[in-house]
Design a protein that fits this description.
Number of helices: 15
Helix content: 25-40%
Mean pLDDT: 91
Number of strands: 30
Structural class: alpha/beta
Radius of gyration: 30 Å
Strand content: 25-35%
Strand order of the largest sheet: 1-25-2-22-21-3-6-10-7-20
Shape: globular
Length: about 575
Amino acid sequence: MSEKDLKKEILELKAQIRKLKKNNLGLVFEDKTEDVVEQSRVKVPVLKEIVKNRLDLSEEYPNNLMIEGDNYLALSVLNYTHKKNIDLIYIDPPYNTGAKNWKYNNNYVDKDDEYRHSKWLSFMRHRLTLAKELLKDDGVLICAIDENEQAHLGVLIEQLFPAHEQHMITIVHNPRGVQGTNFSYTHEYAIFVIPKGLKTIGDRVIDEGEISWRGLRDNGGESLRTDARNCFYPIIVKNEKVIGFGDVVPENIHPNREEEKKEGTYIYPIDNDGVERKWRYARQSVEKVKHLLRVINGRGNKEIQIGKDFGKYRTVWIDKKYDANEYGAKLLREIVPKSDFNYPKSLYTVYDCLFAAVGERPHANVLDFFAGSGTTGHAVLEMNKIDGGNRKFILCTNNENNNGGNGGIADSVCYPRIKAIIKGYKNKKGEKVEGVSSNLSYYQTDLVDIEQIHKVPDEAKIRTTYQAGEIIAVREDTLNEVEKNEWWQIFEGNKKITAIYFKEDKTKLEDLIDKLEKKNLPVALYIFSWGKNEYKGEYSSQNIRVEDIPEPIIEVYKELNRL
């Protein structure tokens, strides 16, 4: 070996050592280069709307997004449009079973690939690193996984999310089991990643059979009427049901335990020995849970009991509704009859995961960047339908071949499913399933050649500005393009306007501002500039907020390349 070759090998070994030290939190793997990540050093992603796929039902409805393309590019765009703005990320990544069910650098990975686990971990690390930047401070990540990578993924998440804690949920999803060499696998996992010290997971609703009951009349320490005078009032019962509540009884009045009146039976918190006690809660509190009160007959008198219909989520979920065949594959074929998509999640598996995190957040933003058949979007829409919420989703998926079927995953499975849920469809019985009030905008990722991300030439900045319209519109949530010419582009939506002025030549800028002022709506005006904050003081007004373009977009992409 020549001295030159020896020095080269030493440098390569040192580089490998640096990589191994970088990934040393109980998880050592060779970081495999990924083409799309390397490509991002010379080309930056933008969005292009596929207008024919837009579902625009009403400006009053939530605006949901679907992004077709490599999810690394989609996540890069979202770091400009939605940074620190996502309440929940739910993902169901490829499980790396070795069955050639996912690609790395356009090549399928099989069980004989000696770098199988390293490729998968590199693939996930690249995407989770970008996704982490999107979560709000109280945001939650939920990652579905099976036994092939569950242990590795847990350590990777611990490395990437040091300020979070993990909770492993086991979900029995296939009662028949998936046959392994020695065992039949009937379950998979959902890793909940939540900020340490914060109560971000809501209480679960318990089935009627699980409700625990106890007497509403207090009988422990400090349970006398005099211990809480506002807790001594009548509960009105008729036909063995609670129908109302009376006022707090003045201290000098001492009623009987039960008194028959015109409205019904008035029941007071008096025990069998005639001791005046109190109800456990004040009237205004009990009124809110009237549906959880029941009347029973006890020792010759009526008793009021209160039930508890919520509790902490358990770490093992077993229910027929989690069956991935019945409520995943069969349900999908009912909605999209020509679908051949393999292994969609049960709708209820995803719904319950989402409900745990955002059931109490009616305006949450939910992201799934492995959207596949669109189950996450379906679950968000179903949740809004049930509780009247205005949650929004962002679905990111590629458009690879649909398991040998017609078309790709995005345009022949995910989009038709979401369209059917929004507009309504007929089930297998021929019955009409009503749609859900919501909007959808469909985008594809595109690339702009910038030559070198850390030193973008002027020509590339101009190209980026001309092609940045849609990502700016998404950032501002003004999705309807109303005008575009060689000087500017204008979007409207949600009773506000976004405008982009393309040129260094400001000859036409005053014309644009006059046009915008006449609209009498809040305006975000993005003006081409070579630097930062160049025009804010000069062109801002009561209705107009001025932003720079393209430097802030380029800065985001530069930062992502440093992660």
